[in-house]
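Reminder to self: tokens first, then the designed residues, so the page reads top to bottom the way the pipeline ran.
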């Protein structure tokens, strides 16, 4: 079995509590990943963030929690929703009832 870089992968064992394991399983399933893929991606993101030769903007990628899972695919839509005020619906002025003269 060859790894992503063509070298043999080295096994690593990690112990998670039940809550962490459930969150990892849910997170990876939502993205169609295996738990191993998710852990490898997290390790790469963590190591990349501490690389002094890396662009600071790229170093921050993957560090913000709670972003939509489809952010990279729909970045422009989310950006517009965040920074462009939505137009409010114009209401028609209320019509007054005509006064009856006595």
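Designed residues (102 positions):
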């Amino acid at each position: 079995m060859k790894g992503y870089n063509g070298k043999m992968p080295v096994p690593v064992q990690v112990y998670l509590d039940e809550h962490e394991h459930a969150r990892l399983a849910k997170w990876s399933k939502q993205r169609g990943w295996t738990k191993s893929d998710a852990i490898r991606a997290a390790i790469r993101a963590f190591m990349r963030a501490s690389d002094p030769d890396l662009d600071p903007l790229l170093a921050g990628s993957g560090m913000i929690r709670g972003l939509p899972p489809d952010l990279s695919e729909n970045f422009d839509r989310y950006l517009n929703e965040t920074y462009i005020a939505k137009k409010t619906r114009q209401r028609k002025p209320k019509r007054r009832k005509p006064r009856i003269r006595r």
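The first helix runs from residue 18 to 31.
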